[in-house]
Amino acid sequence: MPIIACSACGKNLSVPDQFYNKRFKCPGCQSIISFELEAIPKNIEKNQNNKTTAGSDSPIKTNNEEKFNLPQGKLRKKLQGSWVEMEIKTKCIRTFIGFVVVLVSLIAIVGFKYRYVINYIIGPNEMAQIELENLNEQKGFGNNFILVRGKEVVLSSAHQIDIITSKRSGSQREAKYVYKELLVGEKWLLVKNLDEGTLNAKGNLIPFDDDFLKYTFNHPIIGPWGKKYYPYYLDNSWYRLNGHIFLGVIIVNILLLYFVGGEALAIFSDISKSPLAKKIIETKTPRLIADEIENNAQNPLISIGSWRLSQKYFIYNSFFFFDVYFPSSFLKAEKIVLDERDWKFKKKCKIIIDVKGGEKIEIEGSGKSIDKVEKLAVDLITQNNKPKQ
């Protein structure tokens, strides 16, 4: 009867043959254990090596030898049904669905802003005096990308004033925009950001608010003078800028959905394409390591944010990402203080760990938890650097 050691508590267990290639709980600590090919003692392997095929002088291959001759597909099955496989696939589905939801939301916004989209595509539309005079709120002129041609332009006395309030200096008034008056037909049109020396203006036609009209064009004293002006102004700023930005966001999201989302679906259908799964499958005992990762994630030495840390594995498990780092690959650990203004000793810090292959791990936290992380990382790196005897 083979004897194996529990990876969690170290207790030696005598395992009956019927548990071969199966999972069971340690009677001592209740951790999940896999009884795999690699757990069989060497004396059992020697007995199997002594068996020969009838009519042949060559020995029968041991289970270990057969294992390394298995194709990648069969070797990959060792992770099937494990917690690690479930977490990897869950993150893949969440990633793909996340990009789809964002893309659908962006398309919905495009439908909601259909007037702007139409003007963005076919504008600017040239508008004459009679059309300007017949515009009203019932027809709607928000987000109209128009072009007007004037006969004369003068500097207006109208300014856009921004009031800036601060505790030290109080309220300050600052002129942000200077408007110009463009003669279109027989009336003047206020234009914001009109280029010097031009009689043509294009942009968004915006109505004045009721308060402005009340004290200007509709005022009993200023009213006759106000009839010479249109009751709206033209913003000559870059009308298509927001559309360009939004279109860029949509294109980037489509590319991310194609590449990142496509990769997530590929990993979901074939777990061996995951870098983490590859790292585990390349070991001699993939299922045993997967079970140890599950045990360490559920019973970590240190839990900080999305990190679950132990002496054997540093596990990062957030809503979209899942990864496992082996401390044997750690090279250097450094602690950086991010914010010293926190009260008492709860300074916000970051532990940066250099990993073989040029990768870096960053763990943020404060208080005693981050100190424990630093001590654990330094101890593990010191242990890795000890000369092997």
Question: Can you walk through the features of this model?
Answer:
By secondary structure, the protein is α+β, with helices and mostly antiparallel strands. Helices cover 36% and strands 28% of the residues. It has a 7-stranded mixed sheet with strand order 5-6-10-11-9-8-7. Strands 12-13-14-15 form a 4-stranded antiparallel sheet, with helices on both faces. The chain has a 3-stranded antiparallel sheet with strand order 16-17-18, covered by helices on one side. The radius of gyration is 36 Å and the shape is elongated.
- Count the helices. How many? 12
Poorly predicted ranges? 37-72
- Main sheet, how many strands, which sense, barrel? 7 strands, mixed
Nearest-integer average pLDDT: 79
Question: What's the short story on this structure?
Answer:
The chain is of the alpha+beta class and 389 residues long. It is 36% helix and 28% strand.
